[in-house]
Design goal:
Order of helices and strands: HEEEEEEEEEEEE
CATH topology: OB fold (Dihydrolipoamide Acetyltransferase, E2P)
Radius of gyration: 19 Å
CATH class: Mainly Beta
Largest sheet: 5 strands, mixed, barrel
CATH superfamily: Nucleic acid-binding proteins
Shape: elongated
Strand order of the largest sheet: 6-7-8-10-9
Mean pLDDT: 86
């Protein structure tokens, strides 16, 4: 009976380690994580080390140059998720837009496609940012 508490302590230590290391995400300089806690948008995090709750938080990586569809004047649908946004220039609902910059808890999108700053991958269709 004395072995059970040691086994339980070891089990909890391993489970805590898995939980801790599963909560760490690294975000590169030109990316952000859009974090959704229980389906509700919490905010953009990054760059650098980001901590999240492994089972509760769902993360979507957003890069400069990613494309999405404007679904409202302040929201873009990217990768099946709605993300708060600011529009630079003019765009109408339903138009394809591209991530141009990041602000606190918002993405800045542009509807004008500048061929000198972006290129589209022929293999996967991802729009990449140059410079």
């Amino acid at each position: 009976m004395g072995e059970l508490p040691q086994f339980l302590a070891l089990y909890l230590l391993i489970l805590g380690g898995v939980f801790f290391f599963g909560s760490i995400k690294m975000v590169q300089a030109r990316r952000r994580l859009a974090i959704y806690r229980l389906g509700r948008f919490v905010g953009l995090k990054g760059p650098g080390v980001v901590f999240r709750l492994p089972v509760i938080d769902q993360c979507v990586k957003i890069s400069l140059g990613d494309q999405g569809v404007l679904v409202a004047e302040d929201e873009v649908r990217m990768k099946e998720k709605g993300i708060p946004s600011e529009i630079e220039g003019s765009a109408s609902v339903g138009q394809l837009v591209y991530v141009k910059n990041f602000r606190e808890n918002r993405i800045v999108v542009d509807a004008h496609f500048d061929q000198t700053r972006f290129f589209k991958c022929e293999k996967c269709g991802h729009v990449n940012w140059i410079g």
